[in-house]
Amino acid sequence: MSRRQSVSLFPAAPPSPGIVAGWLAMARRRWPVGAGICVTVVALAAALMLLTRPVWRAEAALRLGAPPPVGGVSLAGGGSPAGLFSLFQQMTGDPFANELELLSSRTVVEGVVDDNALAVAVVAPRGAYRDSLFARLGAGRNTAKATFVATWLPDGRVRVLRTAPSDSLVGEVLPGRAASFGGMVVAFLPRRESMPRAVQLRTVAFGEAVRRTGTRLKAERKRREANLVRISYDDPDPELALGVVRSAARRYASLRTELQRRESGQTTDSLRVVADRTRDELRREEEGMERFQRDARLVAPQAQGEAFVERETQVVTALEKARTERVRVDDVIRRLDATRDPGAAWAGLIAHPTFLENKTLGDLLGSLVKLEEERLELAGRRTAEDRQVQALDRQIAYLDASLRSLVHQYRDGVADEVRLLERQQGELDAVLARAPGDQIELGRRQRTLRQLSEVYLFTDQRLRQESLRDAVSFATVQVVDPPEVLFRPVWPRKTLGLGVGVLLALAFGALGMALVERADRSVRSAREIRDLAGAPVLAALLAEGGRVRVSPRERRALFQRRGGRRAAAGLVFVPVDDSAAAEAVARALDTAPVPEMALLGAPDEGEPAAPSAVAVGPALDCYAAAAELADAAESGADVLLVVRQGVTRREELARAAALLREAGAAAAGVVVLADDPRAAESAWR
Question: pTM for the whole thing?
């Protein structure tokens, strides 16, 4: 039979709620779960704060001295590229970065582990520390991973058992007497009332102890350029924390002093070797310079060069004069040899400058001229055989021979002078030819001497600086704040811990409610019911103690849903998961008074305002039940699914709707039963 479109008279469900409203609704439903989780987490946080052993912190502040100057021989000036680069490094770099690395070095940490026997961990009850249990506790570097239990016996002795890696009895020792086992040296104190009866000793490998200590030993600066370093160490044993900080400060200062002394000593030795080598080279160069100047006869090159040039000029000038004189004398001798007449021969000698300046030649020429005049004067009056004339001839001949002999001797002297000057010129030319090479060699040797002198000067100056630096004190690490334990433990922080615990409790409570809500597969809202059943929610009824209360408004929504001309022939309430719920709804509608039933709605064209019957259908658990309900729907009855909010599972509702559709019918609506008014109201959200 044909069906009219079903229209619900109940107010339409509100739109999908927001995130805040959804979380509030979930909180109202799941608050017991969230409250339980919050209480549990807060209790655990409080127990953790109360039962955790306090951790003490020991601190010390060290002031680092200025970093050592950069080593080297050359004194780079501020204007040189090397000086500018060094200045740039000092301005941009961290001058104390190496100091912090040195403080965290393996050598320092190993010394701390050795001094405080950190390769041994003492497990004792709260309040029992190392200084109250042992008179001496030391560990070498041959420890291995093992566990020992020390028990104080009633007779005062201490029994030591090894429990890991294997069980064995180490022995019994008297208090105060040192015992060696497992790489440790232990001297126990006599037991007192406040001491535990047994403690546990756990040893680890030395390298593992160094690694752990290196991560726990902190060295910090408040500012990057500050030279104040604060060392801290946290441990449940305050005396152990204090001992670690003291040992770290002492080991660091000792290592830094040793490194500086070693570096200064190495620098001094290197500079001394360089200075000695430079001094030897300088001495050899000076000796070579002396030999070269002695051989080359160069004392003052510039003055000697000027003197040699002047001497060369004089020799050349004298040589040219001597050669000219020799030519003139040769010319005179040729004329003398060509002329027989002594008077005519010697007449040209009168104008010769050399003979005029020479007094002897001048006198001889004067005498010869006088005799020649006398002979000429007598020649007109006397004959050649005249004794006076012959005497004059003999005197003239003698003077002529003397003059010729003097001229030849003079010519030989001029020739000797020319040869001497030529030899001197050759010697001077040879000296001047060697002068450029000698001056270049002299300049090279002078440059080498100057360089070696500068290197030796700088090296000697640097050596004296390093010697002075080595002589002064190396106390460049000053203890500003001595190692002390803080006045209260740094952990646990009860206020902070409880605050964090409350925040975690709220977070885990919300997460737990969300997980429970997510894991809940029951139907909750009208929207998911409508999506699963494919039908609207007609009413959300309140079920209390097995009874269902139906208001007039809800009756109207159930009986007058149709907007057509005829109401339904009957209502069939089909239970999805609980037959008692459907029977309670049907019973609540059947017991309604007639006047109230008459007021449910206005009749349409004389048709009855209410269905003729209210029945309970079979549970939708198989196809046969769905087919039976399909027949009832064909006869004009409306099939209404009854679900319980928070009980009916989504899979069951979807399966019931699928069975109805498979049988050829559809649910006209869904009736929701809730346990309280707030849940009934939330069924529409």
Answer: 0.57
